[in-house]
Structure formats: structure tokens, C-alpha cells
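INTERNAL AUDIT FORM
Audit reference: QA-55
Scope: verify that the stored structure record matches its stored sequence.
Auditor: D.O.
Record contents follow.
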Amino acid sequence: MNWATQFKVAIASRDAEKALQAFEALPPLEQLSKEEAQELYDYLEQSVAIVDEARKHGNDEIGRMKKVRQFLKTNPYGGGNPI
């Protein structure tokens, strides 16, 4: 699967990991035609949005985990410090 197809799949599935894999599969930029460079630019814009969205979601999840951990540490009914 070439890099353009990899980006298309990543964008269609909104998969940040696949977008990063597509980025890693890029040929040397000097080998791209003007049309391919424009296509890559468009894919990168969309991929950056997907990766940012995944990162934000990950940060939200980490924040929730920290809150639960803190609750368990301080809650007298939580069995004390489980860590």
C-alpha cells in the first residue's frame, strides 16, 4: 500500500496510529511531484487534526484516571493507598 492510500485509510477511519504510520512511509520529499506534494499537504492537514483529537482524548482519559487514583488514595472506604 503506498503512502497516499495509507493516508486515505487513516483519514477515513480517523485513526491517529495509521496516520503516523502513513507519515513514516513517505518517500523522500524530493521525489514527489508538485501534485503529490499538494496531495500530501492536504493529507497532513487532516492527519494533524486527527492526531490532535486523539491526543486530547488521551489527555482526558489520563485526567480521569488521575482523579480516580486520587479518590482511591484519599477515600477512607477505598482501602487506603492501593498503590
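Auditor finding: record pair retrieved intact. The helical segments are 3-13, 16-24, 34-74.
Action required: none
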